[in-house]
Amino acid sequence: MKKIFEKPKSLKPNVMHYCPGCGHSIIHRLVAETIDELGIQERTLGVPPAGCAVLAYNYFDVDMGEAPHGRAVAVATGLKRVLPDHVVFTYQGDGDIAAIGTAEIIHAANRGEKVTAIFVNNGTYGMTGGQMAPTTLLGMNSTTTPGGRDGARDGAPLDLTQMLAVAEGSAYLERVTVATPKHIRQAKKAIKKAFQVQLDGLGFSVVEVLSPCPTNWKMSPVAAYEWTLQEMTKIFPLGVIKDITGYDEK
Amino acid sequence: MTKKMIFAGFGGQGVLVMGYLMALTGMRQGKNVTYLPAYGAEVRGGTANCTVVISDQEIASPVSSSPDFVIVMNNPSLVRFANMVAQDGFLLTNSSLVHGEVKRHDVTKVPVPVNELAHELGEDRSANVIMVGALAEATGVVSIEDLKEALAYTGLGKKPKVLELNRRALEVGAENARQVLNKEKSA
Amino acid sequence: MLGEAAVRAGCRYYFGYPITPQNEVPEYMSGRLLEVGGTFVQAESELASINMVIGAAMAGARVMTTSSSPGISLMQEGISYLAGLELPAVIANVVRGGPGLGNIAPAQSDYFQATRGGGHGDYRTIVLAPSSCQELCDLTMKAFDLADKYRNPVMILGDGMMGQMMEPVEFPEMIDLADLPAKDWTITGNQGRPSRALLSLLLTPKVLEDHNYKLVRKYDAVTRSETDWEEYLLEDARQVVVAYGTAARIAKGAIKRVRSMGLKVGLLRPKTLWPFPSQPIKELTRIVRQLLVFEMSTGQMVEDVEMAVAGQAQVHFYGRPGGVIPTPEEVAHQISHYYYQAGLMDGEDEAKRRGGVA
Fold this sequence. Notes:
The complex is a heterotrimer of chains A (250), B (187) and C (358). Chain A is of the alpha/beta class. Chain A has one domain: Rossmann fold (3-Layer(aba) Sandwich), CATH 3.40.50.970. Helices cover 36% and strands 18% of the residues of chain A. Chain A is built from nine helices and nine strands. Chain A is globular. A six-stranded mixed beta sheet of chain B has the order 2-3-1-4-5-6, sandwiched between helices. Chain B has 187 residues and is of the alpha/beta class. In chain B, helix 1 crosses helix 4 (127-139) and helix 3 crosses helix 6 (160-186). Chain B has helices at 15-28, 75-81, 114-121, 127-139, 144-151, 160-186; strands at 2-10, 32-39, 47-55, 69-72, 90-94, 108-112. Chain B has a single domain (2-186), classed as Pyruvate-ferredoxin Oxidoreductase, domain 3. In chain C, 55% of the residues are buried. Chain C has 358 residues and is of the alpha/beta class. In chain C, the strands form two sheets. A seven-stranded mixed beta sheet of chain C has the order 2-1-3-4-6-5-11, sandwiched between helices. Chain C has a five-stranded mixed beta sheet with strand order 8-10-9-12-13, sandwiched between helices. Chain C has helices spanning 2-8, 24-35, 46-58, 69-85, 111-115, 133-150, 160-164, 205-226, 245-259, 278-284, 301-309, 328-341, 347-357, and strands at residues 13-16, 39-42, 63-67, 89-95, 126-128, 153-159, 197-198, 229-232, 239-242, 265-270, 272-274, 290-295, 314-319. Chain C folds into two domains: 2-180 and 200-226, Thiamin diphosphate (ThDP)-binding fold, Pyr/PP domains (Rossmann fold), CATH 3.40.50; 230-357, Rossmann fold, CATH 3.40.50. In chain C, strand 1 (13-16), helix 2 and strand 2 form a beta-alpha-beta unit. Chains in contact: A-C, B-C. Strand 2 (63-65) of chain A pairs parallel with strand 7 of chain C.
């Protein structure tokens, strides 16, 4: 019998704890496939966040080192500086990277740290119960924005990846989503490219992945995927934000 | 023998360098030394002082409230430190800038016009080294020769020309102190 | 000097953020680490520096950061993680006056923060308190060994006076990194072994409890083997001063002074603040009834001394907070005040004192 589909080597056989319809499991798989395809499993180090993906070390079959909330790229900096031949990635949510960890991500980008951040943007603090995130859309309900996010009261959604574009040391920034199979394929391409940027020592790379959270959005998975594609991309348009690699010209 | 001394003046007068040179000289003579600088948050123009201890024994406290020698480079420092000098101690003042009177008869006062002397020597910035020469001559805590050697290991002796000038400055200070002390003896 | 000692102890990674009065250290390390093929990163905050330390420690490096009080407050989160993750790292706190922005003068007001943990959770940091430049050098080297041996953060608690004072120092030889025992717990890639995760997240209460008790056993071992202190003129002492760091230097000066007047006073100087030398202090109560704790704070270590003597001796306190450096004279005054108050003079001493004064 011919095997046509299998679990990536860089994922452990554990059953994931993520909610039905959550984007994390897909994104985990894309990162693991990338590690497999680049043949770097034995020299890849991951830094999981505080948040829903805090248990990512149960799923990724690579060495992982836990960071305090928001500090993943600082920990990654320490790892990479000691082990420059290794591949270091962080896996961070929107609250982690764009609120409590804003200073760390901006300065890691500015120093051009040769690490890769996978930024999962689902517009909410998932693990703590659906509070407002820096990326929550205006009008969107959360457990701390009764009546919906109000720009005058709560500020507007923050486009962190766009901010990172002005940092001299950021080499490749792209926003993707896992809302449809077509978009998943694009997301995979972006993640692989981001790792390649690191392998080539070009600088800091971030892939922002718009990802549905049906549980906290209080939607069915199907509606949540639809909403990600239709609504989130209005504020967070998909596409390459910065690319100094020149890969595509080759 | 344990000798404690405080050097005090404006930032920029080379006050910390004076203490550093003295401590370095003591160390090169095999003594125990401590050098404790204290200065304001600003780099120039604030107050600066440092405490140096030179001893044959282990030095307990690097802090002193009754130093054997006080070296005062400006008026505010005179007010602050003059009364701290221990009995039978030495009070050296930069008489080019310090004009206040000190009503103490239990200490040896050595006024040295270091700014004028430095100007005569052709290098205004050597005033602090002149004062160190005067201190060594008046108190005998280290010798002029030892100071001359140690100078080569500080920023003051990096270039041969500057080193030579500063060595002359030590002699100028020593000579002046001798004159002051002789005058005092004969008076 | 702290920096050179660290380099000689094999520290090749330094992450820090400027704060007075310890800027000499990062400035020195930025150049020195280049010479020895190490890495210096000026981080965007103390939060970032301590987390870079976490990363470097995870990868198995000898790593250090230094800061001063307000910066150390910011690092507390990371220090808690270091303890929970059982990562070796050296952190030096050049203590300045507080609370808040305080000032940049020498103080000892971070004793509680250093010895009680400072961050969240049930943990201990090994705290070393040097009182001379030579000891600062020696204890810095030792700090790296202790950190590796126990897989625990080690804090060097100094102050601005220690940071800026100069004394002659003999530096030990540079260690050879190849001589250090290999670390079998680092994350360096899963080549030839199962993947490893370094975690302090232990969601099951029973599992975290076991982890806590494992830490307790480690802390007990540290207490048994590493508690360190200096005894000075204790043989005939009737009153003992307890002081550490810079305050102990000043106290020694004061003791010399009162000894010349015939007062039999000694000094016990903790060199490790955690583990605290409770046992030797307790044993002191068999020969002395009077202790004077002297600190450059409003009284923090005094609580540990009181706990150690458990009511078996009178514990007095003298302190100057806010960055004021007390003089040996004023401490001598305090010593003699309590000495006479307790009636510790005997005929012989009294005669010698009168003779000395006349």
